[in-house]
Amino acid sequence: MKHIKDNSILLFFLIALSLSACIETYDLPVTEASSSYLVVEGVISEGESSVTLTRTSTLNSGFTRHEKNATVQIENQRGDASITLIEVDSGQYRASMDLDRNEQYRLKIYTADDKEYVSAFVPVLTTPQVDSVTWSVVNNNGIQLYVTTHDPQSNTRYYRWTYEETWQDRSPFNSFLEYVDHEIVSRDFPLNQINICWKEASSTRILTSSSVKLQEDVIYKQPLLFINTDNSPKLDVKYSLLVRQYAITKEAFEFWDLLRNNSEELGTLFDAQPSQLFGNISCTTNPDEPVIGFVSAGTVSEKRIFIRRNEVPLSLPYNRYVTCATDTIADYPEALEEAFALGDSIPVNVYIDMGGNVNYLSSSRYCVDCRARGGTNVQPDFWE
Asked: What is the pTM assigned to this prediction?
């Protein structure tokens, strides 16, 4: 679910509605929204449950407003089981618990401004296994990834997916040296390698599908995402996709489907209005306050695949960092201090010139330290 960029959907339609009778073009002034509504994204899952709380913001704000310091709880309908989620990051709450398949559960939220929000009690759905995550070359400039699944008991019919991408990023230069305490020393490998990093990204689109109109409960090659190799480095070395699959109710499917349609059609005056975005969460402190989100409960099915560069039958750019180059730094204290003290440049290797003089090859931090381009140089546990 998009965070209004997705979160700005409500505000957009309120503004659009007020302008629909105008004929002349009107440039909207930059103002702060008079109301800020809670956005709840989460699934009550067997194992780890994760809930993200944000606030709607103005269309031109350009950032996500996380709801911090809230108390988020999961409780069952009998009232004899409850767990409090821990805020692991700004607006992100997590906890692990076992779910009773014969019970119903809900989410209860207390925000820092003393408001209470609750979701409806929802049943625990059993999600069928992901059959496969596959890909194929499209238009000779990228790959399309798909998910296929089925429920032999035909009990599911409504599905939703999220995914997490991880890919390897390699610097054009591998630094064997570093500048420490005014001198060049050997880099400590592998603990201090900065040539290889791993980057991550999560799904932002709403991905749902239904088999209601089919005789069998089968979803075949549902499109997940497209990777354009012309402008994306994700497939340059090695790439991994983790797909999470959720069984959802008809009501949840209708909510996500409407929200997706609103997101895709954002920009017209004839989209479904925010009053139609009925989720299953309400504010008990102020029943008239809109709340965006739909909480589901159930098991989660996961499947991870890896794609290596040599498996992709496409011509990928050999070097995306064509502007990266090396400089030669003479081996005397003043030159080294000037080149490396601020950390904007990093020594790469030793260079002996024709006269036998010691020099050092260097390049910019962006070209040498993969962390400067985002990501981490710590290999994920699942990487193979």
From this structure: 0.83
The string of DSSP letters for 333-372 reads HHHHHHHHTTSSEEEEEEEE-TT--EEEEEEEHHHH-GGG
- CA atoms 117, 120, 121, 127: torsion sign: negative
List, in order, residues 6 or more apart from 139 with CB less than 8 Å away.
none
CA distance linking residue 301 with residue 295, whole number of Å: 17
Tokens at 329, concatenated: 């730094």
**What is the reported pLDDT for 57?**
67
User: Tokens 């794609």 belong to which residue?
Assistant: 307
**Average pLDDT over the chain, rounded to an integer:** 87
Taking a C-beta distance cutoff of 8 angstroms, is the pair 177, 187 a contact?
Answer: yes
Structure-derived torsion over alpha carbons of residues 375, 381, 383, 384, reported in degrees to the nearest 10: 150
Please give the structure tokens belonging to residue 194.
Answer: 């900065």
Count of residues making up the chain: 384
- In angstroms, the Cα distances linking 144 to 138, 241, 245, 311 are 6, 12, 18, 14
Say if residue 86 is exposed, middle or buried (CB neighbours under 10 Å; 0-12, 13-18, 19+): exposed
Fill in the DSSP letter of residue 275: G
d(CA 64, CA 89): 13
Question: How do residues 297-315 score in pLDDT, each as one tens digit?
Answer: 999 999 999 999 999 988 8
Tens of pLDDT along 323-358?
999 999 999 999 999 999 999 999 999 999 999 999
